[in-house]
Amino acid sequence: MNRLIKVAKKTLINNRKLNYTLPTNTKLYPAQWNWDSAFIALGYSNFNLNYSFKEIETLVSGQWSDGMIPHILFHVKDLSYTPNYKAWNCGKKISSSGITQPPILASILRIIIERQKFSKKEIKKYQALILKIKKYFKWFIKYRDPKRTGLISILHPWESGYDNSPLWDKPMSKIKIDSKLEYKRKDNQIVNKNQRPLKIDYDRYVTIKNHFRQMKYDPKKLFYKSKFNVVDVGFNSLFLKALKDLNFLLGLIGKKNSSFKKYILLNESKLIKLFNLKKMKFKNKDLKNNTEIEIPSITNFFMLYADLNNNQINTQLIKSLKKYYKNDKYFFPSISSNHKSFEDKRYWRGPVWINCNWIIYQGLKNKDKKFSEIIRKQTINLIEKQKFREYYSSKTGLGLGAKNFSWSAALYLDLKLNNT
Questions:
Q1: Tens-place pLDDT, residues 210-251
Q2: Rg (CA), the chain
């Protein structure tokens, strides 16, 4: 469908500001988001390499001195989003949030560089960028695994990227909401409130955020004092893959890191232990409350993307994945529709997200080519029926959330134009 390829390109261009791209052209998300920009950069790489690298460079320009790349950069002093730049009150060169998101940027950058078949001289142009991403990963290892357990913690549900997932229901239920909360949401006025997180979710999000602000976002304190501290299978899978890809990029510029190699082996061995081979179930660790979380989330299958050096687990994961969506017309629901927490239309509690499908597709290409191709075609078909929505119903295919959503357009281009 060549017409929709043109529409996808136009969607990205229309959402583009000066050197960065909004997640959507509505008032829903008036800033630059971390992993959105990585996916968006991949989309641009299919037709405008300059825009692709501008997107990445603009994101990295918001890096903190300690190495963190925030999950939101507020390039424009816009007060319409909650919480806005004033509520966060952090970031030096660029106002930002005080937390991060899945560091998929390294994986996306590797894909772009490999596809472009850059010469050594051309790759050298991006040395400074690669070294900044290296600093970002050193920050993760230093501050999100200070005890060197081999597993990275997230300290806010927003850091996962899948904000109101049922994965967080149990640890979030333990959080005592601030009695003097003051904030006003606008997201549930722009999009049907039945498709957005509940008020109690937002109360807890803002409570955690306010606590971080009180600690001045000191990474040395946050790990130990955060009201939320979870080791998530999905996040660690994305982290592991990205660290492998970063180490590859460092090799291209003659800067391979032996400590990263050691951490890759440690992270992989610990990640494998979060999968119960007999039950074929995954578990997250709630470090704050010393409990385990078992929720059937599509993000657990990001382990396929991590390219674990374990054929037995990969085979079992694929079998489990094929059962995961058997009651759904469209895949993959963000939470299994058999689970009591499933909600067909509410944000990360059930709908299909294109970035998840893309991640699973990438993870399967070298493990089950036939299944991966089914995923690619089904995802393309869903988008071609409903256009570039934020998310989609797994039961009806109905487009939900924001319209003209950038990463749906970007990943449509990637799936449509690259099937090898």
A1: 999 999 999 999 999 999 999 999 999 999 999 999 999 999
A2: 20
Percent of the chain at pLDDT exceeding 90: 93
pLDDT band at 27 (very low <50, low <70, confident <90, very high): confident
Secondary structure string (H, E, C) spanning the chain: CHHHHHHHHHHHHHHECCCCECCCCCCCCCCEEHHHHHHHHHHHCCCCHHHHHHHHHHHHCCCCCCCCCCCEEECCCCCCCCCCHHHHCECCCCEECCCCCCCCHHHHHHHHHHHHCCCHHHHHCCHHHHHHHHHHHHHHHHHCCCCCCCCCEECCHHHHCCCCCHHHHHHHHCCCCCCCCCCCCCHHHHCCHHHCCCHHHHHHHHHHHHHHHHCCCCHHHHHHHCCCCEECHHHHHHHHHHHHHHHHHHHHCCCCCHHHHHHHHHHHHHHHCCEECCCCEECEEECCCCEEECCCEHHHHHHHCCCCCCHHHHHHHHHHHHHHCCCCCCCCECECCCCCCCCCCCHHHCCECHHHHHHHHHHHCCCCHHHHHHHHHHHHHHHHHHCCCCEECCCCCCEECCCCCHHHHHHHHHHHHCCC
pTM (predicted TM-score)? 0.98
Structure tokens at 33: 């988001």
Q: Which residue has the tokens 């997230």?
A: 154
Which positions are annotated as active-site residues? 163, 390
Short-list 237, 221, 225, CA closest to 161:
237
**Least-confidence region, from 69-73, 140-144, 182-186:** 182-186
Which domains are seen in the chain, by residue range? 2-417 (1.50.10.10)
